[in-house]
From TrEMBL, chains A, B, C:
Positions that bind substrate: 63, 118
Cofactor: Mg(2+)
GO MF annotation terms: lyase activity; magnesium ion binding
The keyword rRNA-binding belongs to this UniProt entry's keyword annotation: no
Species classification: Bacteria, Thermotogati, Deinococcota, Deinococci, Deinococcales
GO terms (BP aspect): oxaloacetate metabolic process
Binding site for Mg(2+): 118, 143
Keyword terms, alphabetized: Lyase, Magnesium, Metal-binding
Name of the protein described by the UniProt record: Citrate lyase subunit beta-like protein
Highest taxon, organism lineage: Bacteria
Domain HpcH/HpaI aldolase/citrate lyase: 1-211
Keyword Magnesium assigned: yes
Length: 232, 232, 232
């Protein structure tokens, strides 16, 4: 479950929908201007600290901006050892992973990474990107199709190749894969059908951007990741 | 056409449905206990010998258990030079193929291999697995999806990537590819639709687990593999 | 928009449907006999020269026969520096691209290449084939499926893997990808649906073999490639 990094009110409410994990987002949910990103960082840092204190058993992650963006380095100041991990969008190579590790290490951090594969290069290099400390991966259909110059459709046929490839690479790497966001907020049946597709392809869960999606996702994916892991 | 390795009666009846080839199965059709596997081996060895004698023009193969299983080595005792080949499930790498060759050679055998690609690693490494003496390949959807942690659906969308990839790799290797088993035994139309999908993707034939499926498969795939080969 | 290399009348009419580019075809549109190919070459050379003179702002390309065919070397005599490029079908490797470059250079030509990926090897090696001077790529579904030994269907599911893979590799190489030909000449809706699939997958345009298809393709793909490029 994602919440915008600049909305302390929404971040505080994140536990209400009982998600498996929450992501405080400094990337897509925050306007791409230096001022907006800077403001979000200070809000997110405090809100993350409060959330970890209020919900000690909840996995709290922060999504920073992409390594190649001008915001990445400053975003790292939001990270703390109390987080369950850092979400890095648009990872494209093993080199990118090394860059993240080095940047974390320079701040004394060793957080596990949730890798976002959502560009042509990321999907093509899916196998090599999923090296430790990458501990989870998500496939981002909207950004992938934008990068390709394609068009999103409700049936997802245009991402079946990439969505399948990422799930397969994740299995080889031994990391759980999280399925695409459903951006249309109406339509429980559409969400469920989308979730069933992802589950059939081997995804372990689904990224949610609205509290109502969490229960729907649990309905389709069933067990929590923790239970799923024990069952393996 | 497959028959359980522990059922001499069914093995003897295999020629009745006029399949292109038959497989005496020591793997999935036999319970995974040392006792059941041992009992199946002695039944299968005699039944294979009788079948080769009774139907000298029929291609008779034996499916052993996977290289990584505790049954593989003992299964090799069932193989004889009279067989048309050995079916090895869950092959995952060129190293696996070498291991099979070495094990066969240590018993003075040089049988061609039908490779089962039905795990994440097998599908990912499809091209490198298909080296001589691999002479045929099959894609196993049930095991593949189990390995991925996915869910099988009637439309097969969740295996379209893997099923396409295996057919493509088989063409590059110059070996015929055999399409997925249809496990639902009711529904001729469902079988035919499944077979049409496989044929469209470039598969040369289909694995059958019920005598009634053989005629349906011939109806969709038309020519026998031998005729097909001559036409190339 | 394609026209047969042996039909001066059709070549002269090519600009009428206002295509983005035209291809004078010495390959599939000309019977595969030495006599027919030789006759087409002299017709095509004159017709190309006249077309370039009559429509100086139109991109005129010539499709030669495949590198491995007995016609390739002689086809090069049709090429001139005035052409916008040479279309080379059935490219399969970086070595093939080098062979084309060398052959062009031996005639003092440095034309950009439109690469046809339409065999098993071409699709598998898609990424390595798309090196300069490859400036565009097209995916050929009919030839690909023939090479695989499969069957074409109206829904294109049997080529979704290959069509997706080529679009992805093209994005990585930074070259526009052109989508499959629709061979059924009836059915505007079928053409539009096919074009929408291609556009969703990231294709920048569509190969057309009938003048009526050009307007339909523009209707679905919208901007011309030139406009598209400026927008990036
Ligand atoms: Mg994004
Ligand atoms: Mg199995
Ligand atoms: Mg062709």
């Amino acid at each position: 479950m994602f919440a915008p990094g600049n909305r302390a009110d929404l971040i505080a409410k994140l536990p209400r929908s009982a998600p498996d994990a929450v992501v405080i987002d400094l990337e897509d949910a925050v306007p791409a201007t230096p001022e907006a990103k800077a403001a979000a960082r200070s809000i997110a840092r405090d809100a993350a600290r409060d959330l970890v204190a209020a919900a000690p058993h909840l996995a709290v992650l922060v999504r920073v901006n992409a390594v190649a963006s001008p915001y990445f380095d400053d975003d790292l100041a939001v990270l703390t050892p109390e987080l369950a991990g850092v979400v890095v969008p648009k990872l494209e190579s093993a080199g990118d992973v090394t860059r993240v590790m080095t940047a974390l290490a320079s701040r004394g951090l060793t957080l596990p990474i949730m890798a976002g594969l959502e560009t042509a290069a990321g999907v093509w290099n899916a196998r090599e990107v999923m090296v430790p400390p990458v501990a989870w991966v998500y496939f981002g259909a909207e950004d992938y199709v934008t990068d390709l110059g394609g068009v999103r459709t409700p049936g997802n046929a245009e991402v079946l190749y990439a969505r399948s490839r990422v799930a397969l690479a994740a299995r080889l790497a031994g990391v759980p894969a999280l399925d695409i966001v459903v951006t249309r907020l109406q339509g429980e049946d559409a969400f469920r059908e989308d979730a069933r597709q992802g589950r059939a392809l081997g995804y372990a869960g689904k990224l949610c951007i609205h509290p109502a999606q969490v229960a729907l996702a649990h309905g389709e994916f069933g067990a929590t990741p923790a239970e799923r892991e024990r069952a393996h």
